[in-house]
Amino acid sequence: MPRGVPNAKKDESALRFTSFHVPLALNPKHVGSTYLKSDSQTLWSRNAIRAHRSRLALDETGSATPTETRRGSKVVVIHPGSRFLRIGRASDVTPLTIPNVIARKHTPPIPDPVYVEGISRPREDRKRSTPSTTASSGDEYAVNVASDDPFDAKVAAITVSLRDRMRFYKLRVTPDAARIATSFNEQFKPEVIPEANDPYYVDWIHSSDEPYHVGEKALRLANPEEMGYVVRWPIYGGNFNTRDYPSTQVIYNDIETIFREGLKQKGIEPNAYKVGSMVATFKETCMTVPQDYSVVLVIPDYYDRLYVEALVRILLIDMGFKQFCAQQESLAATYGAGISNACVVDMGAVKTSIACVDDGLVIADTRMVLSMGGNDITEFLHVLLEKISFPYRDLNLARSYDWHVMEDLKARICTLAEGDVALNLYDFYVRRPGKPTEKYGLRAYDEIILAPMCLFEPRVIEFDQKRTGMRFLTRAPDMAEEMVEQSSDKFTERYTQAMLISTQHLFPVLVSAVGLEHAPPVATPTLQTPATEGQSSAVTPQAPSAATTTPVTPAAEEPTATANDAKDEDVEMADVTAPATESAAPSTSGADEEKASDAPAKDATPSTSTEKGENADKDAAAGADAPIEIIDVDDTDTKTTTPAAVAPQPAQHPQAAPPPMIPIAYRAFNLDVSFEASKLPLDVAIFNSARAAGGDEKIRKYLQAVLVVGGTALVPGMAHALESRLQAIATPLVPNMEKVQIIPPPKDVDPRVLVWKGGAVLGKMDGVADLWVTPADWELFGMRALKERCFFL
């Protein structure tokens, strides 16, 4: 080490393989120059001054006359999603919503459309007219597994959760409902509707010479394969759809085409935002004539760097917008709702993102992404309806018009309110190209609520299968950028604290061996769960008492179940059988308490061998008196990974400090933390996101302000379903926990466009002038411009 430089250290990020010593930065106190000692000397300030002088010069020469325009009329807000693109001016009341799909001419051979199944399927011999569960002769709430099919066991487990809630609310169960619905659906014959009597008749496109079709036109192609078109969705789950595209450049071209067509439908022609000509405004500089439109881009909370970089290049370089600003979805949702603090749950078609917003800033460690959304509800509803002989036999989810049939049916019949479960008659219409409209009748019972319950019971979702064929984005390394921005520990940047909390139970063995001697001692106190009739319900966090009720609500509004009721319920559920390979596990009386016990287990922390022995004795004593769980679908699932099968450790009380991050253990197991955390139930993920924000006070703060947005939030009963399940988890774990509150969207505002409206609010604010990034800034700084200007990212 050279003399006189005692603090010189190697750069462990970009120059880790060299012996070069990075010199220390100059001390600004010893420098006589005033360079960069004030904000006015930064490049951002100089560019702003030059732009202001250019505008004054144009005004003096009369080349440009200012016109009185509505605030935000020259700002375009773009919110790209998996199924829909929302685009429009910031001054518009509602955006233009178009399907984010494009059909482009393709040289033969045309690949056939393939639908990637994301839901478990029953065996071939049990797809139709074979119910997954059968009723019990003794108790109407009891559930029997119909066969040894793993799919039947998974559906039976969800049905048990539903029956537990129906028992609590004292709702009657219709006996033999599946057989009644199946017999009706098998005998139903469709009714043909003449074209003159169909007000929603679809004008199909049977021939076209256009090079591409965007949005609704792409979905109205009668037979795209025979016409030489390939229909693709360029965005999937907050990232690029690399499964259906041969190269990323084709994705960029399709996204730019969809953006341009959306702007045309809003009356914004390309000459309004394309690059202008060069004119001399001063002797020393040559400025570009500013374009008319700026753009606010709404990006995911947990965004991919390459995804954002590609979109910015499309908007600034290829399309030629004047300037742009990026805003995260959760922050935009709070802007649209007019609140400053909330736990935002954005439920889209492919993914569900969760993040906590504190005074206009997204807390980075609270971000989580769940790989499930509205598309999973649609597919699961189709699978459940097939079990009761869905009358439309030829339905294929790979066809756009058949998918629209299930989407419309889901929007009209699905619910999360237990009181709406009944053996009702529904109708739906099938419109196919070249055939008249057909009207079908359908009888269904609990399928309408089991389908959206997959968000809280994701055991039927095949997460590994859903990302089959997806490729990771890559690019050529930029050494100059990496030397400035690369961190010595990529692990802390790649994963959030909420994800680590949710996956620490996968490392019980290695975590205890990894050096945690510097971590503070973790207490595992005895928790008190609500009990009645003077019964004590003191339990450990790993095995909550059966006295805890499923929908925990204040006693003034709803009654609480007693421990005797829970014991009787477990006895009555004894008819439910599981395969011999399953292992017995402690059970609770409610549907959500199983997940409530999983929630603290997911953020378990290691302990010494002595503590392990004591906790094992306590768990054994508690498990001796605990009822036996009838169904444990996680054990029946053959795709369970080896680390996930390890028993979780005792949980940490939320009042203590958040569990320490253990990157060594994760690297040793080579685990994809974000992917494993995306498998959590929705209510558990929300609770873990709130826990990552801090202690008990933060948890209470965010669970009392849960803002649910997105298209899936329109499912009836979603607010109460989330409230009751979150209450069941938080009440025994958080001291002085009051009622969980779901914040409704503002009056007359569609939750699907709330995020876009938040971006429009930012585009009309005066403070947005300090956030704009111009094409020149982007070419000079790259992603650094996004970090320095959009400080909330």
Automatic annotation (TrEMBL):
Disordered: annotated segments: 107-140, 524-656
Extent of Low complexity compositional bias: 535-563, 577-590, 621-630, 639-655
Ranges of compositional bias, category Polar residues: 525-534
SMART domains: ACTIN
Source species, domain of life: Eukaryota
Comp. bias (Basic and acidic residues): 592-601, 611-620
Protein family according to the UniProt entry: Belongs to the actin family.
Protein name: Actin-related protein 8
Annotated organism of origin: Trametes cubensis
